[in-house]
Design brief:
Blueprint (H helix, E strand, L loop, with lengths): L1 E5 L5 E2 L12 E5 L40 E3 L1 H7 L3 E6 L9 H14 L4 E5 L3 H13 L2 E7 L5 H9 L3 E5 L3 H15 L2 E2 L5 H7 L1 H10 L4 E5 L4 H15 L8 E7 L4 H7 L26 H10 L3 E5 L1 H13 L6 H15 L8 E6 L7 H8 L9 H11 L1
Parallel strand pairs: 5-13, 6-7, 6-9, 7-8, 10-11, 10-13, 11-12
Antiparallel strand pairs: 1-2, 1-3, 4-5
Bound molecules: pyridoxal-5'-phosphate and zinc ion.
């Protein structure tokens, strides 16, 4: 019912491949006219595997009950920014604390189908945490390559505790990905970065869940690193439109950090290919990527949806992280860039007042406690004495 097609030359590839002989990215394509949809868009029982009829697996899924994340409406922010509806979908509440779990549940299931015994990824952190968890669940061996010293501590902790072989390299994410791609090829290990088209199939369920709960928004805003997620989410909306479950697709708006913005640059210059950034830098380590592998898919998604790309500074990211926290939503810096981008776009008059906007909060606050302490400072120390605490409390209140 599906095939693996090159997005550049249209050639069909077999399931073991991550790219075409022409070097093009691959995409799962369903024969939607012959598909039997067995779910109802009733806003109930949201989870990745509710949409199994649109997921390319043949076997029983390896699942940790991913998806079904809350979609919060931020009324206070709507008033402040004078926008009709603002929602935040908190992907940080997935099992490992990021949206990567949606992709991993499908990717690991596929690894088993293909009779692989080991999986690997390069990671800015969350892919490794998620892969380690799902590999543990399924009994697969897991190898992780990280840019040493540039991964938030919570993510490293997860990869280690769930039993992955964690290897730090003296290089950035782009170096790690280049190396792991070759190692996987030579050692017959299954690669679970977002060049793997099956992972993106899992991640497209973000779009399905949004539609299931509130219908089609006017725009979806999300942080862009390796650019897989924005491509995946757009694919989800496009498939629902082809199935006539919705009658339009939202604008896809990608947000990059100023120090790691190759897609923003390509978008501004009207290019369909990016020029890699050699030394990407940002406090939002999850999107500290200079050579995004899915750039071609992402630029198409942005173009086809009449969306756009914006950049935000580290300062804007942290300020949005605090704003979300004040609304009861705890996220890591990269996740806050979607809201930082929204605020900037509204200021620049690029969002209509009457819009319904969904921002994707990609990862959990607990992922990066060190940045939090740097930004908020250490807790105050007061002597263990009732009077001292009383005088402290009464001074504050
Ligand atoms: C992976 C990740 C991103 C970037 O997603 P891409 O698909 O690489 O663009 C953004 N935020 C968080 C928290 C992530 O873990
Ligand atoms: Zn091709």
């Amino acid at each position: 019912m599906y095939s693996l097609v090159c997005i550049e030359c249209g050639k069909e590839n077999d399931e073991m491949k991550y790219k075409c002989i022409c070097d093009g990215l691959l995409e799962v394509r369903f024969d939607l006219s012959r598909l039997e949809i067995d779910f109802k868009l009733d806003g109930r029982d949201l989870k990745v595997w509710k949409y199994r009829s649109l997921l390319p697996v043949k076997s029983e899924p390896v699942t940790l009950k991913e998806g079904g994340t809350p979609l919060y409406r931020l009324e206070r922010l709507e008033k402040e920014l004078e926008i009709r509806r603002i929602y935040v979908k908190h992907e940080g509440l997935n099992p490992s604390g990021s949206f990567k779990d949606r992709g991993m549940t499908v990717g690991i299931t596929k690894a088993l189908e293909l009779k692989k015994t080991a999986v690997a990824c390069a990671s800015t952190g969350n892919t490794s945490a998620s892969m380690a968890m799902y590999a543990a669940k399924s009994g697969l061996k897991a190898f992780v390559l990280l840019p040493a010293g540039k991964v938030a501590i919570g993510k490293v902790a997860q990869a280690l505790m769930h039993g992955a072989e964690v290897i730090g390299i003296k290089g950035n994410f782009d170096d790690a990905l280049r190396i792991v791609r070759e190692v996987c090829e030579r050692a017959g290990i299954y690669l679970l970065n977002s060049v793997n088209p099956f992972r993106l199939e899992g991640q497209k369920t973000i779009a399905y869940e949004i539609v299931d709960e509130i219908g089609t928004p006017d725009a979806v805003i999300l942080p862009v690193g390796n650019a897989g997620n924005i491509s995946a989410v757009f694919k989800g909306f496009k498939e629902f439109k082809k199935l006539q479950l919705i009658d339009r697709v939202p604008k896809m708006i990608g947000i990059q950090a100023k120090g790691a913005a190759p897609i923003y640059r390509a978008f501004k210059e009207g290019e369909s290919k990016i020029t890699p950034v050699t030394n990407p830098e940002t406090i939002a380590t999850a999107i500290r990527i200079g050579n995004p592998v899915n750039a071609r898919k992402a630029l198409r998604a942005i173009h086809d949806s009449k969306g756009l790309v914006e950049v935000v500074s580290d300062h804007e990211i942290i300020s949005a992280q605090r704003k979300l926290a004040k609304n009861g939503i705890g996220v890591e810096p990269a996740s806050a860039s979607s809201v930082a981008g929204l605020i900037k776009l509204i200021r620049n008059g690029e969002i209509e007042r009457d819009s319904t906007i969904v921002c994707i909060a990609t990862g959990n606050l607990l992922k990066d406690p060190e940045t939090v302490i740097r930004v908020c400072g250490e807790p105050k120390m007061v002597e263990a004495d009732v009077e001292k605490i009383m005088s402290f409390v009464t001074q504050i209140s």
